[in-house]
Each structure stands twice: as C-alpha cells, then as structure tokens.
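Self-study notes.
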Amino acid sequence: MTPEDENFLRRAIALAAASREAGDPPFGSLLVGPDGAVLAEEHNTTISEGNISFHPELKLAVWAAQHLTPAVAAATTMYTSCQPCPMCSGALARSGLGRVVFALSGEQLDGLKSTGGFPAVPLEGPALYDEARVPVDGYYS
C-alpha cells in the first residue's frame, strides 16, 4: 500500500460519508487511470435512485466497460470504501479492471452492523442440464 493508494482510499471514504449524508448507504468508489488521474467517481444510490443494484463498484465497472478500451481498463485501479459484494465482484471480473483496493473488508463491515445481513434466498438446481446447455454450448469457444 503506497501513500498514493491511501490518499485515493481516503477519497473513497469521503464519497461514502457524502453518500450517507445524502440518505444512501455509506459506500463510495473511484476509478484511477494508468496515469494516476481520477477517471470517475461514484457513491451508492440504491435508495435515492430506487435501484438495488446501484452500488458504486457496479456503476464504475459498467462505466469502464462502456468507456475504456480493454488495455486502459486493465491498467486502472478502483479504490473503494468497502470490499465489493458478490454482485459487484462479478461485474468487476467482467469489466477487465486491473486492480481493486478496498478499505473495509466484508467481515469488518459485518462487525459494524447491529443487525444481520440480508436473508439468504433459497437456490435450487442444477436442473434440466440437457436442455439448458443447448443455448450455451459453444458460446465460450
């Protein structure tokens, strides 16, 4: 962790604080390009925009996929106030970003909550493999 990394993490934490002050969950992120310039910043807007997917990490991953070449994306670093959740981690993997640096771990975040997390949704499967594989088979070749 460099002093520059710490400064960018402090900016992500400041974005998280501003998000909370605005009435949204306290999470913030920024994307830094290969030259050290901030390319984009986001904060959580799941409440104010009424969209449960509007985590800052997801919004920046989508922005990067739409606006950056694969080479530039691979040379970027995302700084975020908290470890990305599974939804955001999936988007980050697909976005091609080079690196993610976070302040709070998911475990540390859970320790700060006075109530439990979201209830687990039961998942059932796999099922109908022979049918479900038809549209997928060969796609990733």
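Second protein, same conventions, sequence then structure:
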Amino acid sequence: MKKILGMLGGMGPSATADAFSKLISHTDAKNDQEHIPVIIASIPDIPDRTENIIYNGPSPLPAMIASLKILESAGVSCIIMPCNTAHFWYEDLIKETQVHFISIINAACNKIFKDNVKEVALLATTATIQTRLYQNKLSLHGVECIEPDEINQYKIMQSIIAYKSGDFNKSKELIYPYINKLRSIGVNKFVMGCTEIPLILEELSRDYPEQFIDATEALINEAIDWYGYSDEIKEAGANQLS
C-alpha cells in the first residue's frame, strides 16, 4: 500500500486549502494516480491558538490531539500541520503519536539555512512572535530576525484576523505599509510565518518571489521529499510495464 500523508488542518480552513493546493501544484504528477495520497482533518472548532497563548483562552491541545488521532486511525504514514502558531504544542503532539510529524517551523528554517540567508523579517501572529518559535532556531545559525514593533505587530495581527473574516482588502491595507517601510530601508527577505499570510500577500510574493519565504511551501516541499515522490513514480511505471 502507498504511503499516505495526513494533514492536521482547520487552523484556518483557507490555510489548509492553500497547503493542499500547493501539494497538488508542487507534485510532478502526469495523471490522478501519480498524486500523493492525502487525508485531511480540517475541523475548525479547535480553539484559537493566539487567544490561548496571549490571553489564557481555552487550550487547543485536546482538540488538536483528537484530530491527530483521527489521522492516525485512518492509517496515515506522516503528518503535517499547516499552522505556525500551533507548533507551540509540537513537542506535546509528537508525544501522542508514533507517526512521523514534519514541523513547519523546521521546514521554513531549513529553507532559510539552505539559501544562506542572514537576515529576515518575520511576519507572523503575535503568539508566534512572543513564543520565539522562529527566532530561537534562527539565532542558533546566526540568522538575524527582525521583529515588528508593537504597533506594526498589532496591524499584522489585525490583517490576519481580517483575512480570516473574509475582509481581504482590509487585510492587505493593514500589512502592506509595514512591508513597504522595511523594503525602503533595504530589508529584502520576509518569512511568511503564518499560513494566512501567503494568501494575503499572494500578488506581492508572486511579483517578488525572491523576497518572500513561504513557510507553507517549505512544509509541502519537505512532505513531498518525505514521500520519496520520484521513487514512487518509478515504481508505479515499472509495475505498469510488467
């Protein structure tokens, strides 16, 4: 039986859909059968991660574990979770399963290290910023991480909330000035460290792909590498010829 990728999603649904779309578009498949098998658990009633970390709201961990168990019971061979802030509980989650679990934080940082980037501006939720999910890993490799000041971080957070609520124009209006300000002083690498941000900045990152590091894309690329896509296709081709 082929390996199956599991996606622990719903945080939020648009980000989950974006991750699945990138899995499809980044897989070099020539027909339906050559795509990577994937099971998605997108159960969006998982409590808000930032609300818990910043304001001591309900913990999302029990609901995330429940989704994890759904995927595990379905027989997945590897799990990805397209939500950066949720990786605050990554160590707790991997203790709950024997299934291989790829970290979006590690995937994005690995991309930064591989590209020999020495300075990045981090665009993420307030919880991701405050828990230093990126900064601690990047600093170990000598990468300087520019964090927004309090006012701009508030605007970035409101941009994410606006996108989740369906106000796409407002989401862009809130975040674009900060990016333009940093670009004007020579900052040219941005980590899209929240899975809604690649959606908010879709046009900008498409026009300037060399400036934006998409954590979701990095995660998907590592999942495709885990799957051993080329080997699977070779095996399928050999079976068709036999």
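Instructor comment on the second fold: The two ends are 18 Å apart (CA to CA).
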